[in-house]
Amino acid sequence: MPEKWLKNKAGLKEISEIIINSLNEGIWVEDEEGFCVYANPKEAEMLGYAQEELIGKHWSEIVHPSGYERMKRESEKRSRGIASSYETFLLTKNKEKLPVIISATPLFKEGKYIGVIGVTIDIRKQKELEKKLSALYELSKELALSRDVKKIAEITVKAMKKILRFDTSFFLLLEQNYLNIVSYSGFKENVVGKSFFLNAEKGIIPWVAREGRSYLTNNTDRDDLFVNIIGDFDIKSEICVPIKIKNKVIGVLNAESRKYNAFDEKDLELLEILASQVAIAIENARLMEEMKRSSEFQRLFISILSHDLKNPLTVIKGYTDLIAIDADERTKKYISRIQNNIKKMENLIENAKVYSTIKEKKYKKEFKKKNVKDIIKTALSELEIKAKEKNINMLSKVKGVYHIKANSVIDEVFINLIDNAIKYSPENSRIEIDIEDTEDKWRIGVKDWGEGVADELKEAIFERFERGDVNTKGSGLGLAIVKQIVDLHGGRVWVEDNPEGGSIFFVELPKIK
Fold first, then answer.
1. Using CA atoms, how far apart are residues 65 and 246, in angstroms rounded to an integer?
2. Strand, helix or coil at 210?
3. Three-class secondary structure of residue 190 per DSSP
4. What percentage of the chain exceeds 90 in pLDDT?
């Protein structure tokens, strides 16, 4: 062994101790019975102890109850010479739950197990980030269903609270040369409607709107751009991002704190993600508003469907019938597929016509006394063959007399609901139709044991072109037609989870007084 190395052995030991004590990860060394023999400063800091307080503690004293069984299993592996890395929870001196990743390696001397050395990584920041990203994900689903800009603004401000720590916040939209507050948080007085001048010389909010770039300051005392326009708070940090659609700024998200260094670059990234989701939601809301105003175009479109498309379909169907007469089995199979798709197109056209007619209230005066039992019977009869193709048993418990005042189009409600249940139910299952007396209304339930409807879609599926499963082919008009017809009859329709799996679609219709 070189003499130079021997002379530096003590120095090397000292350097090793300096490195271990300087690590940003915790180091825990225990003996063969699981008692601590060494913990570096970082380990002690994470757990809230002094280093000397940890010496002699058993690992079971610093593990959270939720992580005890996992730690016990891992500890047993060490004695067998197995190293591993895993995520668990430790317990601090103040009884707080500390999420960590532990990488543990068994120690042996002359073939005998003498203990464990473990590296502990504090993952509180990662967990906090995961929580924020999860909040953003949930928000994206909520925003996707929002059709009103004011509602979008309120949802956004609520979401900002989940991903940032601030004292005040704004959601502003740009209108001509002013940024108007649409929603806010942290003010006692109502500040909705107050505005910022876009071309103001000072102010972070106007600057972000003009430049289309995000801005972060953690010391407003030294920031020449900062000016406190609204409120009497002593703001020390501010974060602001633009809301952009196709590179055009339409608004701004802003948050302020009374603390120095309240925000970081990760907060800026999260707020930018939020702003991009908000931009999409606002654009969708505006598009929906434009669609609502285009009733004239809708009537034209329905006319094209009814005449210019239906006539060629009739011709195609006629030719396929002729070809099928002398065709072989393989060709007949293809012809059958063509005819099935022709039928789907015809159904789409009919659904579109029904939807358009209901929207224009052409059915308003044609109401007669009808029995719900007969309506259900008609729907079941029409869908009998379709149900048999999937071996689905349809059972109606609607046996008595349940009178309502209804238009003939009411049949479409139950045809569509039962057809929907067949479409989304597995083969060899069942569908049940029941009725309940709720004082002044009859409540009819169509129950299936299919895939069910996600909570975030329970309202949206009754809008045009919204379907629960995008992989299932359909026009997306069926449930929209159901809602329009039920509304026309002064009733309501909604969907709930079937406790046994699947869905229950409920329709309430007024009784005849």
1. 51
2. helix
3. coil
4. 46
What torsion do the CA atoms of 58, 60, 62, 64 make, to the nearest 10 degrees?
Answer: 180
Which stretch, 108-117, 154-163, 328-337, has highest mean pLDDT?
Answer: 108-117
Tokens of 387: 């149900």
Are 247 and 210 spatial neighbours (Cβ–Cβ below 8 Å)? no
Tokens of 131: 């929580």
By CB neighbour count within 10 A (0-12 exposed, 13-18 middle, 19+ buried), where does 279 fall?
Answer: buried
Query: Which residue, 442, 436, 374, 383, is CA-closest to 408?
Result: 374
What number of CA atoms fall less than 13 Å from residue 253's CA on the CB side?
A: 30
Q: In angstroms, what CA-CA distances link 171 with 75, 181, 401?
A: 52, 6, 55
Over 90: is that where the pLDDT of 6 sits? no
8 pLDDT higher than 80: no
Q: Please tell me what DSSP assigns to residue 333.
A: H
> Could you report the per-residue pLDDT of 172-216, keeping only the tens digit for each?
999 989 999 999 998 888 888 888 899 988 999 999 999 999 999
Question: Is the separation of the CB atoms in 120 and 149 below 8 Å?
Answer: no
Q: Which two tokens stand for residue 411?
A: 């049949």
Question: Does the pTM of the predicted model rise above 0.70?
Answer: no
> What are the tokens at 193?
């409607």
Task: Scan for tokens 């802003």, then name that residue.
Answer: 254
| pLDDT tens, residue by residue, 284-328 | 888 777 666 655 555 555 555 555 555 566 666 676 777 777 777
Tell me the H-state helices in 383-432: 384-389, 411-424
Contact 274, 136 (CB under 8 A): yes
Phi-psi map region of 428: left, alpha, beta (phi>0 left; psi -120 to 50 alpha): left
Lowest mean pLDDT among 29-38, 333-342, 397-406: 333-342
pLDDT digits (tens, 9 = 90+) for 228-238: 877 667 899 99
Q: Strands 393-396, 368-371: parallel, antiparallel or unpaired by DSSP?
A: unpaired
User: Which of 281, 245, 286 is CA-nearest to residue 143?
Assistant: 281
**Residue-wise DSSP of 64-75:** -GGGHHHHHHHH
